[in-house]
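Exercise (ungraded).
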Amino acid sequence: MAYIGVPEGVPGIRSLVMFRPESGQHLYALAQALLRGDSPLTPAERELIATHVSARNNCMFCRDSHAAVARELFDDSRAVVDCVINNVPSPALSPKLKALLKIAGKVQVSGKEVKQEDIDEARRWGATDRDLHDTVLIAATFSMFNRYVDGLGSLTPTDPEAYAEMGIRLAIKGYVLPQPIKN
Amino acid sequence: MAFITLPEGLPGIRGPMAFRPETAKHLNELAEVLLRSDNSLTRGERELIATYVSSLNDCFFCQNAHGGLAQHYLQCDMAYIDQVKADFYSTNLSPKLKALLAIAGSVQAGGKHVTGEQIETARNLGATDLEIHDTVLIAAAFCMFNRYVDGLGTWAPQDRNIYVERAKWRADEGYVNFDLYR
């Protein structure tokens, strides 16, 4: 049960933005710009950063929904998603993406955890200013989404199938503000 | 020196916003809705929640930029803002706002730190669903803004009075359609 009167049966952040579309519209627009808009990082790589941060914040709804999208987008190399969640090495993970995930993990703890040596390491493998900017902002944004979803006690489905469906929808349609339920 | 090449001379979040206007637009629109649009929580109260969370996250730029705004709206002095940051229970803030600040503090630690008991306390003191929602989202949003500002190693003026002096101006211009370079 969510702490406030959100629409019943609607999971996670969807229920919250339906409760408050005035702020919700900007949250969805931000997610769409960050995760699907122009970037040197692929949507799959960006969803992986979102999954990594959500897993570290122990936010099951965000972790499992973004993991599901990342699996759809990585397609044949989808095994990398569970490797990142479980913190085990994966041959599909480039040294550059590994360095960026490390930075995202530090942002999850605190912005101040990011050090020049972390930036230097990512640059050594070819990370550009835009790669670094987008990584930091995605990690910061999920530090917000995760707190929003759990801080209001929103509904977290436990059926893996529910997330698989979300993954397919989000991979195809991206982030579209859910419309209010009509009675 | 920031970790990436940002337009020069812009303090705090203004550098990354000028670097990437496509995302800045949505960040600013979110701030405008949360901190300035019509609400039963005053602008001063909402800026105070932002200031408190930024202080817990030790983000110098955000806690002073928003602390300056809170000071402007609440017509108090810097010592009062500092007292709120250090121990808001010892201030003369309303019991309802204290209960909301406690929720904001839990959100800063992690979403799962918020308890049903904290929500009940706030509700018993008159907090509405919308006020609880906005408190949680303001606190969560500043966990984002603070990380964006510090995670890119941005520069910030160290004289705290500068933020207070600029607050009236910032209050007038709002969070959208302002000149980043002014």
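Further reading is listed at the end of the chapter. For now, observe: Residues 14-173 of chain B form a domain with the AhpD-like fold (CATH 1.20.1290.10). The CA atoms of residues 70 and 76 of chain B lie 8 Å apart.
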